[in-house]
Structures are given as C-alpha cells and as structure tokens.
Amino acid sequence: MMGPMTPTHPIPPDWEKIDTALLDMDGTLLDKHFDDHFWEKFVPSSYAIRHGLSVEAAEKHLMDLYRSHEKTLNWTDLDFWSEKLGLDIPALKKQVEHLIAIHPHVVPFLEYLREAGKKVFLVTNAHGKTLDLKMEKTALRGLFHGIVTSHEIGLPKEDPRFWMGLRERIPFDPAKTLLAEDTEAVLVSAESFGIAWLVHIAKASSARPSSASTRYHSIETFREITPDKKGSS
Ligand SMILES: [Mg+2]
Predict the structure, then answer these.
(1) For 216-223, which contacts have Cβ atoms below 8 Å and span 24 or more sequence positions?
(2) At how many degrees (to 10) do helices 78-85 and 43-51 cross?
(3) Hey, what domains does the chain have and what are their CATH numbers?
(4) Alpha carbon of 69 to ligand 1 centroid (Å)
(5) Each residue of 129-182: pLDDT tens digit?
(6) 20 C-alpha to center of ligand 1: Å?
(7) What is the pLDDT of residue 70?
(8) In angstroms, what is the span from residue 215 Cα to ligand 1's centroid?
(9) What are phi and psi of 136, to 5 degrees?
(10) What is the pLDDT of residue 224?
(11) Rounded to the nearest whole angstrom, what is the distance from the C-alpha of residue 21 to the centroid of ligand 1?
C-alpha cells in the first residue's frame, strides 16, 4: 500500500475513514481574487504614488521583488512588506476588504464536517494580521476546532517539516486526515509526510479560469466532496 508510486486515496473521499480535515484558507475556502488583486494591482498603484513612479514601473519592480521572496515566510509577513515597501500593508488591506469572500459551497461543507464529528483545522501560511481581518470579515472562525499559521510553526507549508511541527500542536493521524489546498507544492509536501487524502482546489479565484492539478484530484467546489444529508437523496 505504501511507496512512492502509490497514488493517494481516491476522491470523493471515504469519509468513514477520515477523522480530521486540514483546510487551507486563501484560494481554498476564500476567493483568491482578493489576494491577487491586492498584491498585483492595489499595492503597485499605492507604491507608485508613494514613490513617484509610473504604475508600470512599480508593477515590474514589485513582481521581481515578490518572486525573490516566494515560498518563504516573508512572502506572507505583512510587517516585512510594510517595512520593505514603505507602505502600511494592513491598512491597505482594510481598504479593499470588501473583496474578501467565501467560495461557494464552503459553508455547507464545513457544516457537514461538524455534524459528522470530524475535527476541522484551518492551516494557513497567512500572517496573523491577514487571518484576523479575514476571520472578522467572513465570521468563519467558529467553524474550526483550531487555527494554525505557518508563522507559529516557523516554516511554510511547502516545507515537509511543517507537518511535523503541526502535529506537535494538534493531534492528527495522517492516515485518517484529509487536506484541501489550491497550492500543489503544499499537497506534495503533505503527501511526503503521509497525509492520505489530498484534494486540490482548481477554482482558487473567481476572476480566473480554473486550473486542475495533473498530480492530485481537483475539485471546482466543495459541493463535489460534500455527502448528501442523511435522509435526502
Ligand atoms: Mg491557498
């Protein structure tokens, strides 16, 4: 059953064999359009004004800068970016908070998990300040048994050692755990740790076409893995 060539368990999952769900936030539960718009449009235009540059020059400069910090904790550290860009990033996020939105079918899925007695954890690379803004805006916090950020662990989820750190914080059996993620590199790292049920979210942003994984089972919405309510057909 085990081995590098063994595919992960089939999706839709056999919920009877799963007792824990680990769920990513941005792009998975929440519309990634907020984040894309914020970093690709709103921050460059604010940066251009602040530093007297053209929007094009600011975009070019920031895209290069972003790329150099991808897959590190700096990437999601708002204090790092505030300092680096000379902008109040949390205050700017607040200005576009109307774009923060829950993906379709997320709430019924979370309610199913609750009713079915699964442990549900939000596990995110997001910075505490982003997390607070988003939980305040969406009122989802009460639907989780816990929330863990990679800043608390000290490693991004793309690093396989992240999952060991996570397991020291929350008890979970990888063989009975499902992870839903829109970032394929995170699924790869979770798979190497032995998390058995891996779901890729293809439709991360409402403003972009969906992009299926070639390696993991992709879903468009959580409707596809939410069982019908007992008694209904
Ligand atoms: Mg994500």
Answers:
(1) 216/8, 216/184, 216/187, 217/10, 217/11, 219/11, 221/103, 221/104, 221/105, 222/103, 222/105, 222/106, 222/108, 222/109, 222/180, 223/104, 223/105, 223/108, 223/109
(2) 30
(3) 15-31+101-225 (3.40.50.1000), 34-98 (no CATH)
(4) 16
(5) 999 999 999 999 999 999 999 999 999 999 999 999 999 999 999 999 999 999
(6) 19
(7) 86
(8) 17
(9) -65, -40
(10) 96
(11) 15
Residues of the chain predicted below pLDDT 70:
1-8, 230-233
157: its two tokens: 């989820």
- According to the model, what pLDDT value does residue 230 have? 63
- Residue 21 CA to residue 144 CA, distance in Å, equals 10
User: Which tokens go with 137?
Assistant: 């805006």
Q: What pairs with residue 125 in β-bridges?
A: none
CA of 24 to the centre of ligand 1 (A): 6
Residue with tokens 């070639």: 214
Write out 6-34 in H/E/C secondary structure: CCCCCCCCCHHHCCEEEECCECCCECCHH
Ligand 1 centre to CA of 92 (Å) is 21
The pLDDT value recorded for residue 5 is 40
CA of 227 to the centre of ligand 1 (A): 23
Distance from C-alpha of 83 to C-alpha of 86, rounded to nearest angstrom: 5
The number of CA neighbours under 13 Å toward the Cβ of 50 is 15
181 CA to centre of ligand 1 in angstroms: 6
